[in-house]
Amino acid sequence: MRRSCSAPRNGGFTLVEVLVTMAIFAIIGVAASSIVNSMMRTSEQSESAIKDLQQLQYSMLTLERDIRSMVPRKNATGRFFFADDERFAFVRNSWLNPGAMLPRSELEPVAYLLNDGNLVRENFYYVDVSASEDAKSRIIFEDVESMELMFYRRPPADEARNNAGAGAAGSDEWLEEWDFANELPLAIELTLVTERWGRIQRVFTINGGDFTEQVPEPIEQNPDENNPQPDTPDNPNGGEG
Question: Where do the record's region annotations for Disordered lie (predicted)?
Answer without folding.
Answer: 209-241
